[in-house]
Amino acid sequence: VKIWDIRTYACNQTIFDKVPYRPEDRLTSLVFDNYSNNILLGSRKINLWFFKTQEEIKTSHEFPVAFALNNGQFETVVSADDGGFIAVWDIEDGHLMSKFGNTHGPPGSKTKITAGCFDSKQLRLATAGSDGTVLIWNFSNG
Fold it and tell me: Is the pTM of this model over 0.70?
């Protein structure tokens, strides 16, 4: 039995029942009980399986990460990826504060972010792109 996430089409859980059911080795019914958070499987007998809920996995980027920098001035972490996205994370709780894309080149371009650093006061972020450009971002006001 496979439990699927209908939003992402990802398999959240697989249940293996090691008991062979003769003659055809089939499960004939399945019911989810919201009250007990259990799955009831039926064949020649009824089996009760606990359904594990999984917390959504937090990922920072859909592309490989090029860099991650700590900014003590604003108590954040800034990361960038090969898809041209820059994300700003709250250092205390790890929540995404902001994310913006198309940083090097027009939408749909294949320009990757290759490097990044803050100035000495940590108020400006410099990023370099695979197209040879260097951009300076005012980190204090965006």
Answer: no
pLDDT tens by residue, 108-138: 778 899 999 999 999 999 999 998 999 999 8
Average pLDDT of 83-107?
83
In the sheet with 113-118, reading across from the earlier edge strand, the strands are: 113-118, 124-129, 134-138
pLDDT for 49 beyond 70: no
Rounded distance between C-alpha atoms, residue 20 and residue 41, angstroms: 13
CB atoms < 10 A from the CB of 79, how many?
19
Measured CA to CA, the distance from residue 63 to residue 121 in angstroms comes to 29
- pLDDT at site 119: 93
Task: Answer whether 96's CB lies under 8 Å from 85's CB.
Answer: no
CA distance 129 to 19: 57
Strands (E), the chain: 2-5, 10-14, 29-33, 38-42, 46-50, 65-71, 76-81, 86-90, 96-100, 113-118, 124-129, 134-138
DSSP run (H or E) holding 16? none
